[in-house]
Write a structure and sequence with these properties.
Layout lengths: L1 H21 L73 E3 L16 H11 L3 E4 L13 E7 L10 E3 L5 E10 L2 E5 L2 H8 L5 H11 L3 E2 L6 H8 L3 E3 L3 E3 L2 E4 L5 E7 L9 E8 L5 E12 L7
Parallel strand pairs: 1-9
Antiparallel strand pairs: 2-3, 3-5, 4-5, 5-6, 7-11, 8-13, 10-11, 11-12, 12-13
């Protein structure tokens, strides 16, 4: 009997050993999918609803801030070189014109502020009269925009520190200087302008302060058609044989000597006068000499 059972026991032990070697042991449970920190959802097409047929387009804001400048827009017209009206022509021999160079290059006229901007500035500063100044006074602003804000003041002619304008009706004025980003500086006196510029270190500033402080400056350089036409085609009695354009010369002791031209706007004599000024390092302006080059024959009287 044992001989019969022994083979079956051996076969059972062999099968048990075979299953132990051929079948892997059970491991840990199933591992889930990898989990990331950010799960990006599938892209969804952005479908905007169609606009309504009757919907009005949004309004376009065309209003500009008071000092907004348009580099491609119009430039202010310098009316100082317009021929004087009237007269009976010219007398004498036309002078030879010797052109000169503008300090530090070009002299494009400043950007012209439109009526809306001028009205906004007039209202902001309460100006009775508001004028935009051409070059070289416009060089006082980094953006080329300088305005004269004036009021009627009978005592203005007696204030040596004021910016004066007007004829029989004197005006007391302030300078409004565009500093950019909507900021406007108001200078009420010549002393305030000198404090802004001092120490004066360049010829452009010397010419600009003369144009801003001295009345009736005509910055004739003789290098443009309107310059020469003003001299050669106006109603003048020619006195000088040669006219040399505006020039600025540095002084050995500091400051500059500015030689430019004046045409008085008031009264009945609007002669072209050559005037020389000394501008010191504190931006003080002192007239040195004055010579009449062309005598006015227009007969125009301005009160």
């Amino acid at each position: 009997m044992r001989r019969i059972l022994w083979p079956f026991a051996a076969v059972a032990i062999g099968l048990a050993w075979w299953f132990a070697q051929g079948c892997p042991r059970p491991g840990p449970g199933p591992v889930g999918p990898e989990v990331r920190d950010v799960v990006e959802p599938p892209p969804v097409e952005d479908v905007a609803p169609p606009p309504a047929e009757d919907a009005a387009p949004p309004p376009v804001d065309t209003a500009l801030p008071p000092t907004a400048l348009d580099p491609e827009g119009p430039r202010i017209a310098d009316r100082r070189f317009q021929p004087l009206p009237g007269g009976r022509g010219s007398e004498g021999t036309r002078p030879i014109i010797v052109p000169t160079q503008v300090p530090d290059g070009g002299r494009d006229e400043p950007p012209e502020l439109g009526p809306a901007a001028l009205e906004a500035i007039r209202s902001q500063f309460g100006c009775e009269f508001l004028f935009q100044l051409p070059w070289p006074a416009s060089w006082l602003s980094p953006y080329g925009v300088v305005l004269r804000c004036c009021h009627s003041q009978p005592e203005a002619r007696n204030n040596p520190d004021a910016f004066r304008s007007g004829c029989l009706r004197p005006l007391e004025c302030s300078l409004l200087i565009d500093e950019g980003m909507g900021a406007i500086s108001k200078l009420e006196t010549v002393t305030a302008l000198r404090q802004r510029l001092a120490p004066l270190r360049d010829p452009r500033s010397a010419l600009a302060v003369v144009d801003a402080v001295v009345r009736d400056v005509v910055p004739f350089f003789g290098d443009r058609a309107e310059d020469t036409a003003f001299v050669l085609e106006g109603p003048w009695r020619y006195v000088a044989e040669t006219i040399t354009g505006t020039r600025v010369v540095e002084r050995p002791g500091g400051g500059y000597e500015v030689t430019t031209f004046l045409v008085p706007g008031c009264g009945c004599r609007h002669d072209l006068v050559e005037a020389t000024f000394v501008v010191d390092e504190l931006a003080g302006v002192v007239e040195q000499s004055r010579t009449t080059l062309l005598e006015d024959l227009s007969g125009l009287c301005v009160d």
